[in-house]
Write a structure and sequence with these properties.
Strand order of the largest sheet: 2-1-3-4-5
Distance between the termini: 69 Å
Structural class: alpha/beta
Number of domains: 2
CATH class of the largest domain: Alpha Beta
Low-confidence stretches: none
Order of helices and strands: EHEHEHEHEHEEEHHEEEEEEHHHE
Helix content: 40-55%
Radius of gyration: 31 Å
CATH topology of the largest domain: Phosphatase 2c, domain 1
CATH architecture of the largest domain: 4-Layer Sandwich
Strand content: 15-25%
Number of strands: 15
Oligomer: single chain
Shape: elongated
């Protein structure tokens, strides 16, 4: 498609000269003309303009006001503007460039201006604008893809109120529209299976990896009588069977906490996740499940351990990923201590409304990050599972 160049100048001869210069040196261009700033604003509203050649001294609305108005406009602020003026004072040149003009040249035009400088400046401005529009469109498409991927990821999340033996409450905050944090909870053969996992990385690649983690998890967990350590070991073996890591620096690794609720017993195994917490309703205590383990995908043929603990009706399990407290500092590995400290302060909220508890935990860490001039830089996944009374 042809480029559209808008020439704004109240002198007819000046407009004709610029038009003649550019039409003879540029291919595929059409022109619009304006005699004042108001006409410029009217034209850009009804026509797609790719470049404006703007005089400063015009009636009704001068070039200074026109430039400021354009650059403040939500839609038209990125149209490149080259100022063409008889004003040669350095302050005028400086101010128009500060206000957003991409270039400036003075009248009257010399032969070099007409044959070389003006055509080059116009061509460079048009090419830059086209590149910027391409980047904007690509960014729009990427955001649309992220939105679709996030919709798919949310479909894959377990649904609150869909389980018979437990009440489930979840909160998910991906840092880039879609993330690598993942949780699942389902009933099978009279037992409640659940897992929270954190795949290395962010964005679409991590989201794709977390989808695979869920598939591997369901495939393993649905085997009759399987225990948490066996699930982690089987997932780990599957990763090394599916992927060839020979000679690669980037591995498909993730941390995970896997649990099985069977009657009044909780069986669990940890693969590098921050310590989950148990809220004992009868004793009103909030304690971490301090169990460690290797990260899944780091090494082939590694083993995990299943531990068990008693549970009572009404007790709750609070699980979360390290994106809640992670800031990239070396001391982040102790962040679970701050999580349990804040969780204990909110135990009344948890007892009254687990969903509100998750919101308040998230808000508390948001304010902590904000006080340090930071924001969440990693995906955050949280889940509360309560045994029905």
């Amino acid at each position: 498609m042809a480029y559209c160049i808008l020439i704004a100048d109240d002198a007819t001869m000046n407009r004709m000269l610029v038009k003649k210069i550019l039409s003879s040196s540029l291919d595929d261009v059409v022109f619009e003309e304006a005699v004042n700033g108001q006409e410029v604003l009217d034209i850009v509203e009804r026509t797609t303009v790719d470049l404006i050649i703007l005089d400063l001294i015009m009636p009704i609305m001068d070039g200074y006001e026109t430039l400021r108005t354009l650059k403040a406009h939500e839609i038209h602020h990125d149209i490149p503007v080259i100022v063409n003026s008889a004003i040669t004072e350095i302050n005028s040149i400086e101010n128009t460039l500060k206000d957003g003009a991409v270039d400036y040249f003075t009248k009257p035009l010399s032969p070099n201006d007409m044959n070389i400088i003006l055509p080059l400046k116009a061509r460079n401005a048009l090419q830059l604008y086209e590149q910027n529009r391409t980047i904007i469109e690509l960014n729009r498409l990427i955001q649309e893809e992220l939105k679709n991927a996030n919709t798919f990821a949310n479909i894959m999340l377990p649904k609150s109120g869909s389980l018979k033996g437990v009440d489930l409450h979840i909160k998910y905050h991906p840092s880039l529209g879609i993330g690598g944090d993942f949780f699942d909870c389902f009933e099978h053969d009279g037992r409640i299976h659940f897992m929270v996992a954190d795949v290395t990385g962010h964005g679409i690649a991590a989201g794709m990896a977390s989808s695979m983690v869920k598939i591997l998890y369901r495939k393993s967990a649905e085997r009759e009588g399987i225990m948490p350590h066996e699930i982690l070991e089987e997932m780990n073996r599957s990763i090394f069977e599916i992927f060839d890591f020979a000679g690669r620096d980037n591995y498909f690794v993730f941390t995970a906490f896997v649990g099985v609720l069977d009657g009044n017993k909780l069986y669990h195994a940890n693969a590098g996740q921050p310590y989950p917490m148990i809220f004992n309703q009868s004793e009103n205590t909030f304690d971490p499940i301090m169990q460690n383990g290797f990260i899944v995908g780091m090494m082939d043929e590694i083993g995990f351990e299943t531990e068990e603990m008693p549970m009572e009706r009404g007790d709750m399990i609070f699980l979360y990923t390290d994106g809640l407290f992670c800031t990239g500092e070396a001391a982040d590995f102790t962040g679970w201590e701050r999580v349990i400290s804040i969780a204990k302060q909110l135990d009344r909220t948890l007892f009254r409304s687990p969903a509100e508890f998750l919101d308040e935990i998230f808000y508390a860490f948001h304010m902590i990050h904000k006080s340090q001039g930071l924001d969440f830089t990693d995906d955050v996944a949280m889940m509360v599972i309560q045994l029905k009374g």
